[in-house]
Design goal:
By secondary structure, the chain is an alpha+beta fold. It is built from ten helices and ten strands. A four-stranded mixed beta sheet has the order 1-4-5-8. Helix 4 packs antiparallel against helix 5, helix 4 packs antiparallel against helix 6 and helix 6 packs parallel to helix 8. The two termini are 39 Å apart.
Length: 382
C-alpha cells in the first residue's frame, strides 16, 4: 500500500481493525442463518463508510472513490456479504441520486443513505436483461402526474432490508428513433403494487440481502424521475463503470483474505513431520496467490486514480474487475486446497470465500462483458 497517502493508510488501518473485531466474529453465523446484521450496517454508518465519496453538504465525508475502495477491500477480506452491502449501498443506492438526481431528491434522500440509516437498491437486471441490459421489458407510462410501472427485476441487492427506503429502476418509457427510450424512476418501498419477493437461496453472499422485485400497476409521482427522460440506460452504464472498480476492490480484499488465511494455516499445519509451509509446492502456491493480490490491487488503484482525476477510466475499470475477480476465484480455490478437508467446512473463512467469489466474475458485468469492453478499446469489436 505504499502508493497510498498517509490519510488513506489510516483509513485502511481503521477499517481493517473494524473488520477484524466487529465483522469477522459474526460472519460464520450470519452466513449460516442467511442474516444481514443491521447492527453491523449501523456501525458502518457510524464510521461514515456509506458517506465516504460524497460531499459534506449532503452528509458525506468529502472523500473520493479511492477512499470507498479502500474500505470495501478491507471488509472483503473477512466478509464479502458485508462488503457488497457497503458497495451496493454507495455505488448502486446513493450514487445514482447524487449523480443524476434533482437537488430536491438529493436533499431528501442522501442524508439518511450516507449515514447508513437507510439503504436503496439498483433495479437494472431482469429475467431477460442481464448483460444485455438494453433488453429491458419493465415499462413505465406517464398518466397525468404519475408514472405507472409494470414489470420485474431480479438479483437486486439491499432491496428488502428493514431500512430499505426505495429502489431506483430502469423502465422503458417510450420509443426514440426506433429504439427503446429507457428512463430511471424512484420507487419507494411500500408503494402499492410493488412487491419485494422472497429472498434467493444463493450459493454464496448468504448474508447479503438479495430479492426479485415485481411491479404491478405501481404508481409514483412524475417527479420521481431520476435524470432526464430517456437518459436512464446511459446513466446507469456510467454507474456500472464505477461499480466495477468497487467490485475489483472487493475482489482484491477477498483474494488477500484467502492468502492471509492460507499462509497462517500452512505455517501451523504439520504434514509428514514438518510444517506445510516448508513444502515447495505449498510455497509456490502461496507465492502465486501473493502475486495475484498485488496485481489486482494495482489494477483497481489505477482505475480509481483515473476516475478521481476526472479522466476516462472505463477500460481500466473493466481490466481491474477482470483481473481482480479472477484473482479472488483463483485464490479461493488455492486456499481451499491448502486447507484440505478443513477448506470444505463452512466454519473456515476460505470455504465461504470459495462460495462467495464466483459471483465476482458475474455481477456488475460478467468476465465476458469485461473482455468485450477491453476489445472495443483496442478497436477490435465491430
Amino acid at each position: 500500500m505504499d502508493q497510498l497517502t498517509e490519510e488513506e493508510r489510516e483509513l485502511a488501518a481503521m477499517v481493517r481493525e473494524f473488520a477484524d473485531t466487529v465483522v469477522a466474529p459474526q460472519s460464520y453465523e450470519a452466513d449460516r442463518t442467511h442474516t444481514l446484521s443491521m447492527d453491523v450496517v449501523a456501525a458502518m454508518g457510524d464510521l461514515g463508510l456509506f458517506g465516504l465519496p460524497f460531499p459534506e453538504e449532503y452528509g458525506g465525508q468529502g472523500g473520493d472513490y479511492m477512499a470507498l475502495g479502500i474500505a470495501i477491500e478491507a471488509l472483503g477480506r473477512v466478509d464479502q456479504s458485508i462488503a457488497i452491502t457497503l458497495e451496493a449501498g454507495v455505488s448502486l443506492g446513493a450514487m445514482p441520486i447524487f449523480r443524476f438526481g434533482t437537488e430536491e431528491q438529493k436533499r431528501e434522500l442522501l442524508p439518511d443513505l450516507l449515514a447508513g440509516r437507510a439503504l436503496a437498491g439498483f433495479g437494472l437486471t431482469e429475467p431477460e436483461a442481464g448483460s444485455d441490459a438494453g433488453a429491458t421489458r419493465t415499462t413505465a407510462r406517464l398518466e397525468g402526474e404519475e408514472w405507472v410501472i409494470d414489470g420485474s427485476k431480479q438479483f437486486i441487492t439491499n432491496s428488502g432490508t428493514p431500512i430499505t427506503r426505495f429502489v431506483t429502476v430502469t423502465a422503458v418509457t417510450g420509443q426514440a428513433d426506433g429504439r427503446k427510450e429507457i428512463s430511471t424512476i424512484i420507487v419507494p418501498n411500500g408503494t402499492p403494487g410493488f412487491t419485494v419477493e422472497a429472498p434467493y437461496d444463493k450459493v454464496g453472499w448468504n448474508a447479503s440481502d438479495t430479492h426479485p422485485l415485481t411491479f404491478d400497476g405501481v404508481r409514483v409521482p412524475a417527479a420521481n424521475l431520476v435524470g432526464e427522460r430517456g437518459s436512464g440506460f446511459r446513466n446507469f452504464l456510467s454507474i456500472l463503470d464505477e461499480g466495477r472498480i468497487a467490485i475489483a476492490a472487493l475482489s482484491t480484499g477477498a483474494a488477500e483474505g484467502c492468502l492471509e488465511a492460507a499462509v497462517d494455516y500452512a505455517k501451523s499445519r504439520t504434514i509428514f513431520g514438518s510444517a506445510l509451509s516448508t513444502r515447495q509446492n505449498a510455497q509456490f502456491t502461496l507465492a502465486r496467490m501473493r502475486a495475484r493480490v498485488h496485481t489486482a490491487r494495482l489494477a483497481w488503484h489505477h482505475a480509481t486514480r483515473l476516475r478521481d482525476a476526472g479522466r476516462p477510466f472505463a477500460e481500466q475499470a473493466a481490466i481491474a474487475k477482470l483481473v481482480a475477480g479472477e484473482a479472488a476465484m483463483d485464490n479461493a480455490r488455492d486456499a481451499t486446497q491448502i486447507f484440505g478437508g478443513n477448506g470444505f467446512m463452512n466454519e473456515f473463512p476460505v470455504a465461504r470465500h470459495y462460495r462467495d467469489s464466483k459471483i465476482l466474475e458475474i455481477g456488475e458485468g460478467t468476465t465476458e462483458v469485461q473482455l468485450l469492453v477491453i476489445a472495443r478499446a483496442l478497436g477490435l469489436a465491430g
